[in-house]
Amino acid sequence: TLFGAIASEARRRIVDFNPQGLANTAWAFACVGWDRRQIFLELGAVAVENLLYLNEAQKSQLYLVALYVQIEWPDLNFPLSSNLQSFKAAYA
């Protein structure tokens, strides 16, 4: 599938994403209802490594992604879960 190819390429290049690219990619996969959680785990891990560089809009975007992940996989230890309160503040 097209998104399968995009996911493969994103996973290969994820460490090179800037904060906006990271937030946009995570958001795109959430918007299409992507059902493979590995891409979210990897994007979340890179986002945690770059928390200091995320602006309010990117945090807001990642907050919505985190909500999607919680709904889809409630038992998943999503890397951004511990930061949801600060991301929620950016969303408000």
Quick summary:
By secondary structure, the chain is mainly alpha-helical. Helix content is about 70%, strand content about 0%.
Salient structural properties:
single chain; 92 residues; mainly alpha; 5 helices; globular
Would you mind describing this structure in some detail?
- The protein has 92 residues and is an all-alpha fold.
- The protein contains five helices and no strands.
- It has helices spanning 2-13, 19-31, 37-49, 56-72, 84-91.
- Helix 2 (19-31) runs parallel beside helix 4 (56-72).
- The protein is globular, with a radius of gyration of 12 Å.
Q: How much of the polypeptide forms β-strand, as a percent range?
A: under 5%
Treating each run of at least 4 consecutive H or I residues as one helix, how many helices? 5
- Unreliable stretches, pLDDT < 50, 5 or more residues? none
Using DSSP, what is the number of strands? Answer: 0
Q: Estimate the mean pLDDT confidence.
A: 89
Rg, Å, rounded: 12 Å
Shape: globular
Specify the biggest β-sheet: none
How much helix, percentage-wise, in residues? 55-70%
Terminal Cα span:
35 Å
User: What class, by secondary structure content?
Assistant: mainly alpha
What is the N-to-C order of secondary-structure elements (H for helix, E for strand)? HHHHH
